[in-house]
Specification:
Elements (H helix, E strand, L loop, with lengths): L8 E2 L7 E5 L8 E4 L2 E13 L3 E8 L5 E7 L3 E5 L4
Antiparallel strand pairs: 1-2, 2-7, 3-4, 3-7, 4-5, 5-6
């Protein structure tokens, strides 16, 4: 598997080591972290899922703009549940 990490963490630039989950496990309301942005965006909708990919709509928390993103389901992403 290409995206397998033994300790289920990733290291985004400017943030450091964060717990990660496969993109296929993302849920509406999850908060995603990308490089240099610890709480970059929130998942507002899951548009489509196939066997290998997931399409999401993410809302940038700073500006409120929505963006569509496709991710391979096996890709690890830094995400946390909004209830945390």
């Amino acid at each position: 598997m290409r995206y397998r990490h033994p300790d289920k963490t990733i290291h985004p630039q400017g943030i450091g080591k964060l717990p990660a989950i496969p993109a296929g496990d993302l849920k509406v309301g999850d908060i995603l972290s990308w490089n240099n942005a610890p709480d970059a965006c929130t998942i507002t909708r899951i548009v489509r899922e196939t066997e290998k990919s997931i399409w999401i709509i993410e809302r940038e928390r700073k500006t409120g703009k929505d963006y569509k993103r496709r991710l391979p389901k096996k890709r690890l992403v830094a995400a946390r549940r909004s209830s945390q």
